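Task: encode each sequence below as structure tokens.

Item 1
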Amino acid sequence: MQAIWQIYKNVVFEFGQPLSPRLNFAIITAHNPLGELCSAGQNAMLDRVLQRDITALGVPYRSLFGCDSTKSHMEKSWAIAIDKEIAITLAKNHKQNALYWVADDQLYLVPALMVGVQEEYIGRFSDKVISINAQLSVS
């Protein structure tokens, strides 16, 4: 589990619209539940279910991609303006090991289903943004 936690800590983000540095939000994906790689079709279906659940919350959200530093692995994700406890529950419901929490431009890696790890500060969110791609859809 420590190896996958390290991978999660080395994330960068690509998204279509800048977010206010004063906004607190969670970043959650539905891709690859429990860290198991799924096909593109499976991940797309899982993402649609997550987006439906987010829409039902009636809160602001934006699409983005969580990536490794080389962008060789990218997961469609959502920045969601919700309470951290609700975010953890949402991540657990979608079988995610962890989620990211952003508060005042500070980025934290938060366990959801992972055990044996603690929430960890991993840097300034703005330092983890590698590009803003205007071609990405914004919901």
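Item 2
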Amino acid sequence: MELDRIDRHILKTLQGDGRISNRDLAERVALSPSACLKRVRRLERAGVIRRYLADLDLARIRDSVTVYAEITLKRHQVSDFAAFERALAAIPEVVAACQISGRFDFLVTFVCRDIDHYRDISDSLLGGDSGVSTMTSNIRMKVSKPFAGYPLA
């Protein structure tokens, strides 16, 4: 899909404030409200805008620990990767997962109540039939730069 300067401006603005009114968005990108809404709907239909989310401050809600796990699978067949991805999809504490190239196969982000909770999950992945060979866990200490949207330039 071809994106022009106005489309990118709309996307950048929505990444910063997904609840902005169409009228305010239109004003920021110098369009009429109807033309702006038409563009946003086109971007949604095309799958460029997949969904709108609230950015929660979990620390204000409950205690938690965030763990980034480097996971290597025992085997590297397409079916092994698919089975592992299904196993991850069934774990609510997995908030993000990426298959990557390099010295391990997946980088998985877990958000758990505490470290014991994470240990139980990692033990079940290592001891179960998910195909995991090794897991290296990295505990998040602090967020130095939070995700603020993708660069669109």
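Check on item 2: Helices lie at 5-16, 22-29, 33-45, 78-89, 115-127. The chain has two domains: 5-45, 58-139.
End of task.
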